[in-house]
Amino acid sequence: MSYAARMELLYTAHVPAGDGPFPAIIALHGWGASAHDLIGLAPIFDGGRSVVLCPQGPLAFQAGPGQVGYGWFPFTGGDGVDPAEFEKGVASLQRFLDEALPTLPVDPRKTAILGFSQGGVMAYALALRDPVRYAGLVALSSWLPSDKAASVAPNPELANLKTLVIHGTRDPMISIDHGRESRDELIKLGVPTTYREYEMGHEINPEALRQLVGWLDETVVHPVLVA
């Protein structure tokens, strides 16, 4: 794990050898995980030839005996999200990215943001508020709160924010209904959305991972340019 004095979040990062610039994937972990949770996917994304940046949520809590988990914002019960705490987490993550990305050999035209579970909520927030900044958005086993969708300002750039939503039909943590509702909210906003369901729980199974890797390759890493 790395820490830079000016940065308020811990993180892990995979940086390919060479000068770059490289495609970049910002991967945000879910509730109770850490900056190490998704970094293991780095060798799979374009054969390890993309920068993968995994920041760690600022909220630490006791996840079990001798175990510390991290999150982006506290849960208030049910589907509730405390607005002030949520905005605090979003602001912290945005500051981190503003400081970290310029120090890495990333191609800003090929930068995607990806989140699992609670990390997906954060990915939704950052990308929908500033769609021109991202070549792609991925939400895995996550949800887009309806009030957050309603607060998204009209922006023609949303039509260029290619988005992948993947959810498990047997997810015991976040119901499949939330995945479908998120898809519908994105479509209302005019976001080009690819939606996939798989027979899985709160996880990324091999089939979903193949879909994810293929989508990132075609959409962000090696997009087909139309003349």
Topology diagram in text:
Blueprint: E1 11-14, E2 22-28, E3 51-55, E4 59-64, E5 67-71, H1 83-100, E6 106-116, H2 118-129, E7 136-140, H3 146-150, E8 163-168, H4 176-188, E9 193-198, H5 206-221
Parallel strand pairs: 2-3, 2-6, 6-7, 7-8, 8-9
Antiparallel strand pairs: 1-3, 4-5
Short description:
The protein is α/β, with parallel strands linked by helices and 227 residues long. It is 28% helix and 24% strand. The strands form two sheets. The chain has a seven-stranded mixed β-sheet with strand order 1-3-2-6-7-8-9, sandwiched between helices. A two-stranded antiparallel ribbon has the order 4-5.
Structural class: alpha/beta
| Helical residues, percent | 25-40%
In the predicted model, the low-confidence regions spanning at least 5 consecutive residues are 1-5
Write out the CATH superfamily name.
Alpha/Beta hydrolase fold, catalytic domain
Q: How many helix segments? A: 5
Architecture per CATH nomenclature, i.e. the level-2 architecture: 3-Layer(aba) Sandwich
CA-CA gap between termini: 43 Å
Which radius of gyration do the C-alpha atoms yield?
16 Å
Instruction: Characterize the largest beta sheet: strand count, sense, and whether it forms a barrel.
Output: 7 strands, mixed
Number of domain units: 1
What number is the mean pLDDT?
A: 92
What would CATH call the class? Answer: Alpha Beta
Spatial order of the strands in the main sheet? Answer: 1-3-2-6-7-8-9
CATH topology: Rossmann fold
Number-wise, the strands total: 9
What general outline do the C-alpha atoms trace?
globular
Note the beta-strand portion. Answer: 15-25%
N-to-C SSE string, H for helix and E for strand: EEEEEHEHEHEHEH
